[in-house]
């Protein structure tokens, strides 16, 4: 199996963390340094361009961005909306983690989203922020909490047999691969995932 259908769902992360009494890693002594080291290890392993040090002011308040993304999924549901969402996420990632731009500032993310979506769609999304964007983001966070989520990334995975399971953290993608029955790459960054969780030669 090589094809997977992926649906990205924006949620209110702070709301989820509060609901389950979790603490952001950046606020935990020693772990704040560890997660940055680990981020650099994964970026090197998968050849993902990324700043070595966290951008200035990390972590930023991304509430308005998340409301915008949630509003976009309402405005453009289905495959078209997901394709637009992925394009926006890619550009936001590059702007923040590669270029170090202050993407949480309204003028910055407005320019980015307007450039990707076009002014007409971006204008509609902006009008949806106070109501549809806010309500959808909260609803998605509540659904994630009820599903057992306590942080991000949170994966809800259904394989070809209809078997459903959940996984947390980028370092558990090897288990996602196994649950889906995907072909297991034997080189590069994926080898680290596969060997760690499935064993050498499995």
TrEMBL record:
GO terms for cellular component: mitochondrion; peroxisome. One of its GO terms (molecular function) is glutathione peroxidase activity. One of its GO terms (biological process) is glutathione metabolic process. InterPro entries: DSBA-like_thioredoxin_dom, GST_Kappa/NadH, Thioredoxin-like_sf. Residues 3-180 form the DSBA-like thioredoxin domain. PANTHER family: GLUTATHIONE S-TRANSFERASE KAPPA (PTHR42943), GLUTATHIONE S-TRANSFERASE KAPPA 1 (PTHR42943:SF2). This is DSBA-like thioredoxin domain-containing protein. The lineage of its organism: Eukaryota, Fungi, Dikarya, Ascomycota, Pezizomycotina.
């Amino acid at each position: 199996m090589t094809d997977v259908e992926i649906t990205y769902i924006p949620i209110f992360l702070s709301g989820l963390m509060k609901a389950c009494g979790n603490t952001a890693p950046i606020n935990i002594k020693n772990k704040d340094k560890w997660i940055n080291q680990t981020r650099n290890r994964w970026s090197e392993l998968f050849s993902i361009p990324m700043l070595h040090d966290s951008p200035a002011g990390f972590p930023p308040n991304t509430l308005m961005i998340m409301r915008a993304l949630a509003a976009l999924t309402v405005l453009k549901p289905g495959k078209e909306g997901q394709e637009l969402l992925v394009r926006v996420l890619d550009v936001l990632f590059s702007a923040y983690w590669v270029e170090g731009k202050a993407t949480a500032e309204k003028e910055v993310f407005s320019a980015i989203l307007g450039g990707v979506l076009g002014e007409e769609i971006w204008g509609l999304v902006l009008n949806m922020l106070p109501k549809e964007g806010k309500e959808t983001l909260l609803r998605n966070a509540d659904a994630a909490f009820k599903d057992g989520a306590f942080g991000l990334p949170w994966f809800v995975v259904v394989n070809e047999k209809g078997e459903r399971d959940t996984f947390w953290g980028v370092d558990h993608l090897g288990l996602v691969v196994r649950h889906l029955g995907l072909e297991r790459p034997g080189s590069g960054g994926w080898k680290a995932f596969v060997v760690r969780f499935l064993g050498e030669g499995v």
